[in-house]
């Protein structure tokens, strides 16, 4: 009977892990805008951006003004729409969220392993079954906090918010959890 409890906790922990891993994939589905007059939907005054010009040079700066045909960065550096091939931003919130998700994933794995090991040598149903669930929650929660802290220290990945029409895309790797009655796994996708 103790093994049954460990399996139940592992299954619910696994379902939580899959749901948490699916969230960033769905959040990143939004693509870049293809017109300068749509930049105000992605950027705000004061945002730090990385502007790539038509020669491939990348210039970092804070947005001072956004116009339908130009963007002006600090130190009055103005970039007209035809001279810009891409604009990127660093997503700090993604680094924190991703760190927390990685922490939760590690914590759920540790908690499931702990629960399985504990229940294989003890009678979990007789010895306070809620205590094991509480231990799993504490392990996963503290791991998420540690992961978020590490993510806060990292610079965060660059995300493209504008791509000039006709500019080639760079490669992109994405994964999507697959859950069916017969299949559990991850689908990988590589696009260029």
Number of helices: 3
Low-confidence stretches: 1-11, 21-29
Largest sheet: 6 strands, antiparallel
Number of strands: 8
Radius of gyration: 23 Å
Order of helices and strands: HEEEEEHHEEE
- Taken from the alpha-carbon principal axes, the silhouette is elongated
**Terminal CA distance:** 51 Å
Strand arrangement, major sheet? 4-3-2-1-5-6
SS-derived structural category: alpha+beta
User: In percent terms, what proportion of residues is strand?
Assistant: 25-35%
State the helical fraction. 40-55%
| Domain unit count | 2
Whole-number mean pLDDT: 75
Structural write-up:
It is a single chain. The chain is of the alpha+beta class and 192 residues long. Helix content is 42%, strand content 28%. It has 2 domains: 2-28 and 93-151; 36-91 and 157-191, no CATH class. It has 3 helices and 8 strands; from the N terminus they run αβββββααβββ. The protein has a 6-stranded antiparallel β-sheet, with no helix packed on it. A two-stranded antiparallel sheet has the order 7-8. Helix 1 (2-27) runs antiparallel to helix 2 (92-121) and helix 2 runs antiparallel to helix 3. The radius of gyration is 23 Å and the shape is elongated. The relative contact order is 0.18. The model is unreliable at 1-11 and 21-29 (pLDDT under 50).
List keywords for this structure.
disordered N terminus; 192 residues; two-stranded antiparallel sheet; alpha+beta; 2 domains; 42% helix; 6-stranded antiparallel β-sheet
């Amino acid at each position: 009977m103790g093994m049954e409890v460990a399996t139940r906790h592992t299954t619910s922990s696994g379902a939580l892990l899959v749901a948490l891993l699916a969230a960033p994939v769905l959040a990143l589905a939004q693509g870049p805008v293809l017109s300068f007059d749509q930049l105000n939907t992605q950027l705000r005054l004061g945002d730090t951006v990385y502007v790539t010009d038509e020669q491939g040079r990348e210039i970092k700066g804070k947005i001072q003004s956004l116009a339908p045909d130009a963007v002006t960065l600090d130190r009055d550096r103005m970039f007209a729409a035809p001279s810009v091939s891409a604009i990127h931003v660093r997503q700090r919130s993604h680094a924190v969220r991703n760190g927390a998700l990685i922490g939760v994933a590690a914590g759920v794995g540790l908690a499931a392993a702990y629960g399985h090991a504990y229940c294989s040598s003890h009678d979990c149903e007789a010895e306070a079954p809620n205590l094991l669930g509480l231990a799993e929650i504490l392990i996963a929660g503290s791991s998420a906090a540690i992961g978020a802290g590490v993510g806060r220290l990292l610079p965060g990945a660059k995300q493209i918010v504008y791509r000039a029409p006709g500019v080639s895309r760079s490669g992109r790797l994405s994964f999507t959890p697959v859950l069916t009655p017969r299949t559990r796994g991850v689908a990988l996708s590589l696009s260029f």
